[in-house]
Design goal:
mainly beta; 2 domains; single chain
Length: 177
């Protein structure tokens, strides 16, 4: 089979592959992942990163963090037509050690509640330190709008984001490894 035949077979396999398959490649010396919202539907792409950044848009649709793409413990998610090439934003990988710097010792784990509201159905980031292995979840919904993790709210080490009218009290389980 010639080069042209190989290219056609590769294209055919790519088009038949399930939407959850992620293409990993090298980008500027580091690993990158293409994550694509096919048919404007929600899609999650597993990556071990704590944070990510969009380095190349692959769709006509604008990709806006917190609106149609984001990152949570499960990986990168895209929605509503966003397709892009993503790389680690330097926060390290889940499950590994810390990237350095001061880390509190045992006894610094805590649980507390914070509020975060999407006023006028707009994106908002509420800064909260979740620690090295923390977690956030909705403890009381305040708005009439839905609060769906990964769609209208999410979290990372630095805090909680809300969008599309989601207003809630969030319980923060701050944890350090």
């Amino acid at each position: 089979m010639g080069l042209r035949g190989s290219a056609l077979v590769s294209l055919f396999i790519f088009l038949l592959a399930p939407a959850s398959i992620v293409q990993a490649q090298s980008y500027g010396g580091g690993e990158s992942v293409d994550c694509v919202s096919r048919n404007f539907s929600y899609q999650r792409c597993d990556v071990p990163w704590r944070d990510a950044r969009l380095v190349r848009r692959l769709s006509d649709t604008q990709c806006i963090r917190g609106q149609n793409w984001g990152l949570d413990r499960g990986g990168i998610w895209v929605d509503r037509g966003c397709a892009g090439t993503f790389v680690s934003a330097g926060g390290g990988h889940h499950g590994g050690g810390h990237a350095g710097g001061w880390q509190p010792g045992p006894g610094w784990d805590s649980r507390f509640t914070v509020g975060c509201a999407s006023d006028d159905y707009r994106y908002r980031f509420c800064q909260v330190d979740l620690g090295g292995a923390g977690r956030a979840y909705v403890s009381r919904k305040i708005s009439g709008a839905a609060c769906i993790e990964g769609r209208s709210w999410g979290w990372n080490r630095a805090g909680i984001w809300v969008d599309q009218g989601c207003s809630a009290e969030f319980t923060i389980d701050r944890r350090w490894r």
